[in-house]
Amino acid sequence: MVDKKIVGEKAAEFVKDGMVVGLGTGSTVFYTIQKLGQLVKEGLSIKGIPTSVQTEELAKELGIPLTSFSEIESIDIAIDGADEVNSELELIKGGGGALLREKIIARAAKIFIVVADSSKRVEKLGAFRLPVEVITFGYEMTEKHIRAIGLVPEIRLNGGTPFITDNGNYIFDCQIPEHVQPEMLERMLNMIPGVVENGLFVGMTDLVITLDQEKNVVMLRR
Ligand SMILES: O=C[C@H](O)[C@H](O)[C@H](O)COP(=O)(O)O
């Protein structure tokens, strides 16, 4: 909890007056958003673009002005959490089900910052099952195709029924093969009809804000 707060709040230092800011989703970036809410109250002028309904509600509660893609040309900075980060700054995201909007916003951002306590740092991606967002039509067939490329998918449930994303889709949480290149897997999955997006973020992260064993803030750059 404390670790998430330290890295989350640190990221707010990168946000400057006048910026359009991609607001991520989850319990780490929660602290960034809280801090930004405080700075806005103190006079910081920014526009947020949220990656989920949950974050939109939080930002509204905190008084952070929001914008949308119909009003902006680009995003100056996006800040988000991650479920796993490797040494190449490749990520698995989507534990909270927000991966699709998160990837759209990360891709649109000039700078993409990840806030991740040390528990998220891994040598190899994959201990955390990879979230894959699929449309509901034909999802049984989509599952077979995902299985056919070597993954072991399991539909995400919420109280016994399929979890529904903010976009009205389902999520398969997938065990991924032991020796797989994240970039190749990201592409292969997105070629399957019915797959909308997957939680591999490759070549997108500019900076990871994390902690070392002594709890000092560490910046990992690409
Ligand atoms: O869909 C959720 C997002 O990808 C989150 O950024 C990710 O799950 C990390 O969340 P947390 O900071 O709560 O561990």
Protein described:
There is one protein chain. The chain has 2 domains: 140 residues, Rossmann fold; 68 residues, Alpha-Beta Plaits (2-Layer Sandwich), CATH 3.30.70.260. The mean pLDDT is 97. With 222 residues, the protein is an alpha/beta fold. Helices cover 28% and strands 27% of the residues. Strand 1, helix 2 and strand 2 form a beta-alpha-beta unit. It has 6 helices and 15 strands. The site of ribose-5-phosphate has 17 residues, from helix 4.
Give the helix/strand layout.
Elements: H1 2-11, E1 20-23, H2 29-41, E2 47-50, H3 53-62, E3 75-80, E4 84-85, E5 91-92, H4 99-108, E6 109-115, E7 130-134, H5 139-148, E8 152-155, E9 157-158, E10 161-162, E11 170-175, H6 182-190, E12 195-198, E13 200-201, E14 207-211, E15 217-221
Parallel strand pairs: 1-2, 1-3, 3-6, 6-14
Antiparallel strand pairs: 4-5, 5-13, 7-11, 7-12, 8-11, 9-10, 14-15
The structure holds ribose-5-phosphate (R5P).
**What is the class of the largest domain in the CATH system?**
Alpha Beta
N-C termini distance? 26 Å
What hetero molecules are in the model? ribose-5-phosphate
Task: Round the mean pLDDT to the nearest integer and report it.
Answer: 97
**How would you characterize the largest beta sheet?**
6 strands, mixed
Order of helices and strands: HEHEHEEEHEEHEEEEHEEEE
CATH architecture of the largest domain: 3-Layer(aba) Sandwich
Poorly predicted segments: none
Assembly state: single chain
The total count of strands amounts to 15
Residues in helices, as a percent range: 25-40%
Fraction of residues in β-strands: 25-35%
CATH topology of the largest domain: Rossmann fold
